[in-house]
Design brief:
2 domains; NAD(P)-bd_dom_sf; NADP-dependent oxidoreductase; six-stranded parallel sheet; Lipid_raft_assoc_Zn_ADH; GroES-like_sf; globular; Rossmann fold; seven-stranded mixed sheet; alpha/beta; binds NADP nicotinamide-adenine-dinucleotide phosphate
């Protein structure tokens, strides 16, 4: 089958011809309709999280239809529209355990669009859960215009959270449509100055930093949170003793996209509280270029690979 991945860790992704997988007991064979691109795809392909066998098919998010069932499968039938996570989704087929991270796709969007949801959507929902956001809080979101940011802005504002969205470039119209109360263009003004002067001189309740990869940058952003607040990093940039030192709880977030979380996302999409912003759709042959573009920054919403 056709796929895109790497023959050596850290090399440029390319078109591959790899064997079509067969579903084992309890597994679904899914004919992939689209794969979502995430920053983590390149990190996995660089061998950072381990050295799975090569060639390595890239991608973790998929949407598609169940084509065949392994022995004993009871939750799904052939033809079901599903979305979820599996390693190697830039490919015509993937297998996934029926009890794994897979759920019925939402009805309100085209099936291919659901491929944008699993990782970024589960991250957005999971952050609200981990930070114990219950509604009414203020939330400073750094890196708001990308995959996680556009989902989180919507899910938070639907819970009456006042979102201050930080972007690079003027994204105020789009972020406003997603529910941000304020959008700050970090290339046009100093975010700390604006927060101190106009928005939250006393500090926000919650910081979600999707951008800072080093502890110093995260610590600087954490200063915009008041004592007793929460600061979340999706990039592991938390300090070792930060919460003790500053009175701000630090969370190094790690996504856990279970079937339950995916079902909750589908429900939000069907309820109209979560719009999926697909900025670009590329055919499989152009996945390597799309991955390179995203690595270079500038993501707006999600990019999907159409199989
Ligand atoms: N720990 C976990 O479980 C987990 C889960 C999901 C994602 N992540 C990580 O979280 C990060 C965000 O994920 P994502 O899927 O949302 O990535 P994405 O779709 O690439 O979006 C990142 C966004 O941040 C913006 N950005 C970069 N630097 C910025 C700055 N200084 N100020 C404001 N905006 C800035 C980018 O646009 P510009 O380049 O135009 O500024 C882009 O819109 C990634 O590093 C990803 O690997 C971690």
């Amino acid at each position: 089958m056709r796929a895109v991945g790497v023959k050596e860790y850290g090399t440029t992704p390319e078109l591959l011809d790899v064997p079509k997988p067969t579903p084992g007991p309890g597994q679904l064979l899914v004919r992939v309709e689209a794969a979502g691109i995430n920053p983590v795809d390149s990190i996995i392909a660089a061998g950072v999280y381990g050295k799975p066998p090569l060639p390595l098919v890239m991608g973790v998010d998929f949407a598609g239809r169940v084509e065949a069932l392994g022995a004993g499968v009871s939750r799904y039938a052939v033809g079901d529209a599903v979305f979820g996570r599996a390693q190697g989704t830039y490919a015509e087929y993937v297998v996934v355990d029926e009890t794994g991270p897979v759920a019925a796709a939402p009805d309100a969007v085209e099936l291919k669009t659901s491929a944008a949801l699993p990782t970024a959507g589960a991250t957005a929902l999971g952050i609200l859960e981990r930070a114990k956001v219950r509604g009414g809080e203020s939330l400073l979101l750094i890196g708001a215009a990308g995959g996680v940011g556009t989902f989180l802005t919507q899910l938070a504002s639907a819970r009456d959270v006042r979102v201050v969205a930080v972007t690079r470039g003027d994204e105020s119209v789009r972020m406003g449509l997603f529910g941000a109360a304020v959008t700050i263009d970090a290339t046009a003004e100093s975010v700390p100055d604006r927060m101190e002067r106009d928005e939250y001189p006393e500090g926000v309740d919650v910081l979600v930093d999707l951008v800072s990869s080093d502890k110093a940058a995260f610590a600087a952003n954490k200063k915009m949170v008041h004592d007793g607040g929460v600061a979340v990093s999706t990039r592991g940039a938390v300090s070792e003793h930060g919460s003790v030192q500053s009175g701000v709880e630090e969370i190094a977030f790690l996504v856990e996209p279970t079937a339950e979380v995916l079902a909750a996302l589908a429900k939000e999409v069907d309820a109209g509280t979560l719009k999926v912003f697909v900025d670009a759709e590329v055919p499989l042959e152009q996945a390597p270029q799309a991955v390179a573009r995203i690595q270079g920054g500038g993501a707006r919403g999600k990019t999907i690979v159409k199989l």
